[in-house]
Structures are given as C-alpha cells and as structure tokens.
Amino acid sequence: MKQFSLGVLLFSFLWLGACTRVPEGVEPVQNFQLQRYLGHWYEIARLDHSFERGLTLVTADYSLNPDGSVAVVNTGYSQARDDWQLARGKAEFVGAKDVGHLKVSFLGPFYSSYIVIALAGDYQYAMVSGYNKSYLWILSRTPTMPKDVLERFLQKAKAMGYPVDQLIFPKQEAQPGNKPSAQSSR
C-alpha cells in the first residue's frame, strides 16, 4: 500500500486552496444528519481527476474524531501499480451542522468543499460535489446502485449543470488482497 501521490495531492490542494464555496445553482442537503452519514461508502461514479485517475474499487470511510471533526479515509486500487492507494483527511462543517456543506482537507490547512447535494432518505445513496461543477461523486452503501436511483441522481446532476456524460463508473468487483482498512496505520 502506498499513499496517494503526495505531489499530486499537494498541487491539487494548493491550487484549490480555501475553495469551500458552493457552485452556482447547487444547494446542499438540508436537515443533514452526520451520524447517519458516517460509515462506509462505495464510489459508483465520479468525474475523473488526477488524484483518482486509474483507481477502481474506490471507497470512503467517515468516522467521528474526538474533536467533532470527521475522519476521512479514502482507498482505491491501482491496477497499473498493483497496489492500494490510501488518503487520510478530515472534514468539518462550513456552517450549520444540519446542512450538508463541509470542507475537507487531505493536506494541512488547505480545504476544499465537500457538498452533499442529493441524499436518499435512508442514507443509502448520496451525490457529492466539490467547489465547482467539475467535481462530482455518486456514492452507495453497497457496491452497486439500483438503476432507477442512479438515473434520478444523473438527471438531478444534469439539471444542475454537471457534465454527466463525462462520468466514469469504476468497477467495484472482487477486491485484490491486502486492502488497507480505515483503521490501518499510515
């Protein structure tokens, strides 16, 4: 297991800086309940970026830190490297704690938006945006998502102006051995 490329992360988050705004025409989920959101999520779709390029079997784990912030552990498998990639970060609410607008950092004081823009009532499926419309993730509590739910999310994202035709759908099939856990050491 290796850490996500530090150079790529450094460039990405220095460039993003304090980009914690909400894209125009996008509203974070209201009545957001962090305790229900915590836990394990599978990445069903994403807009491609250098810090995840080539990764499959991507998951995110969210847990509460003692200080009330959210511990973030993202993992993904790089077939090209035949290795698991791991990124640890933390997230905090930007404003009210019942609004799905957080800021996330994987590198020191540099934060970027993490905006929950769609959420199933049972907290089984979510759609997340970054600070602009070139960042979008569709997440599920299971490795697959019902087609009707996915279609509703895609239509919502398209109506908000996201380039859904550019989404990639990383595989979530059987995992190679030695996957790091959210609790494993750096």
Name a few traits of the molecule.
single chain, Lipocalin, 3 helices, globular, alpha+beta, 8-stranded antiparallel β-barrel, 186 residues
Walk me through this protein's architecture.
The protein has 186 residues and is of the alpha+beta class. It has one domain: Calycin beta-barrel core domain (Lipocalin). The protein is 15% helix and 38% strand. It contains three helices and ten strands; from the N terminus they run E-H-H-E-E-E-E-E-E-E-E-H-E. The chain has an eight-stranded antiparallel barrel with strand order 2-3-4-5-6-7-8-9. It is globular and about 40 Å long. The relative contact order is 0.23.
Brief rundown of the structure:
Helices cover 15% and strands 38% of the residues.
Question: How much strand?
Answer: 35-45%
Number of strands: 10
CATH topology: Lipocalin
Mean pLDDT: 87
Task: Please trace the helix and strand order, writing H or E for each element.
Answer: EHHEEEEEEEEHE
Using the CA coordinates, give the radius of gyration.
15 Å
Distance between the amino and carboxyl termini: 9 Å
Enumerate the spans where pLDDT stays under 50 for 5 or more consecutive residues. 4-18
Oligomer classification: single chain
Total domain count: 1
- Tell me the CATH superfamily: Calycin beta-barrel core domain
Strand order of the largest sheet: 2-3-4-5-6-7-8-9
> From the helix content, strand content and strand pairing, which structural class follows?
alpha+beta
Please work out how many helical segments DSSP would assign. Answer: 3
What's the architecture, going by CATH?
Answer: Beta Barrel
Helix percentage: 10-25%
CATH class: Mainly Beta
Estimate the global geometry from the Cα principal axes: globular
How is the main sheet built?
8 strands, antiparallel, barrel
